[in-house]
Amino acid sequence: MKKIFESYDFVILFSVLFLISVSLIGIYSATINESSSYIKKQVIFAILSLIIIFSLPFLDYRKIVNNSIWLYILGILSLIYVKFFGITVLGAKRWIKLGFFSLQPSEFMKYIVVIFVAYILAVAKIPISYKDVAKILIVVSIPFYLTLKQPDLGTAITILIPILFIIFLAGLDKKFIIGSFLIIIFSSPFIWMHLKDYQKNRIIAFIKPEADPYGTAYHIIQSKIAVGSGKLVGKGFLQGTQSKLLFLPEKHTDFIFATLSEEFGFVLSAIIVLVFLLLALRILYWGSKVKDKAGKFICYGFGGLIATQAFINIAMTIGFAPVVGITLPFISYGGSSLITFSLMVGTVLSVIRINKMQKLQFTGD
């Protein structure tokens, strides 16, 4: 029994349990006047996620890494399947219908791409070479493009983010990093020309929300009202007016942080931010401690993604970033997102367990 408890990192474990608990409270409150199927489905996915988080640490993560090429191929095939046979919701074709729920393959690509890149870098020299970077960019570009065409800019960005963390922490030449930023800056007019109209409108709404308060800027304005009206301790559980009176769109998905802020105020909002920070830093800490390169880059990729995606979602909610349509990890409604992040945490816990075992064996010798 003692060995079982030693297999977990309780800072990571309790952080995730807290976030999932907050999720169920927020989703129940946000959808109480609508269909009860939302909370029922999320409870089921929460149970499945907990099973993953508690059981995956006892699977050697190196087996997953060594089979990552097959996971990657399966992921790409699923994205291609979505393009031709996926279901369309609000103009976007992102889901595969599976009985009573829908699967979003692009969410799982966040996990798969990091694992596959860790596999590539496991045999690479550190600092990595330009050749290694080229391989990685090819691997990432395919799911990035297929996701972007759904269209789903938010998820496409979050597929790319953890790989940028890995490349940076793998000791890439600073000249390459600076050059990449300069290329992005100078190519921004070209990027702008190829954005879809709704994407351009979201950026304009972020810069100047008062220009179209009842159109493109409506989400941001209503979200900021909800967050601000919560004040210090909130209006109380089930007492939020922005969400209950349907002023706040996507109140259980992309804007669930606004729902929670309105009902529980700055206190809970600050705790959520601190828990995300603690969770990400703890995972990155283990990345710095683990000797195995694949395990190290898994921690760097997943820790970086959790931190960045949480930051973007919260910044979007309070008007500090454009609306890009990404979930708040572990909290937003959605089975694909919750299971994906649970797979990440379970794999990180596997990395930690194997690392602890190797240290004990070394000490014993």
Describe the structure.
- By secondary structure, the chain is mainly alpha-helical.
- It has one domain (2-364).
- 70% of the residues lie in helices and 4% in strands.
- It is built from 16 helices and three strands.
- The protein has helices spanning 2-6, 10-30, 37-55, 61-66, 68-85, 105-121, 130-148, 153-169, 174-186, 188-193, 197-207, 218-229, 241-244, 256-289, 293-317, 335-364, and strands spanning 87-89, 92-98, 101-103.
- Strands 1-2-3 form a three-stranded antiparallel beta sheet, with helices on one face.
- Helix 2 runs antiparallel to helix 14 (256-289) and helix 8 (153-169) crosses helix 15 (293-317).
- The longest helix has 34 residues, at 256-289.
- The two termini are 24 Å apart.
- 45% of the residues are buried.
- The mean pLDDT is 87.
Number of domains: 1
Rg calculated over all Cα atoms: 21 Å
Which percent band covers the strand fraction? under 5%
Overall mean pLDDT:
87
How many strands in all? 3
- Number of helical runs? 16
Q: Largest beta sheet, briefly? A: 3 strands, antiparallel
Low-pLDDT regions? none
Provide the succession of SSEs.
HHHHHEEEHHHHHHHHHHH
Indicate the topology.
Elements: H1 2-6, H2 10-30, H3 37-55, H4 61-66, H5 68-85, E1 87-89, E2 92-98, E3 101-103, H6 105-121, H7 130-148, H8 153-169, H9 174-186, H10 188-193, H11 197-207, H12 218-229, H13 241-244, H14 256-289, H15 293-317, H16 335-364
Helix pairs in contact: 2-3, 2-14, 3-16, 5-6, 5-7, 6-7, 6-8, 6-15, 6-16, 7-8, 8-15, 12-14, 14-15, 15-16
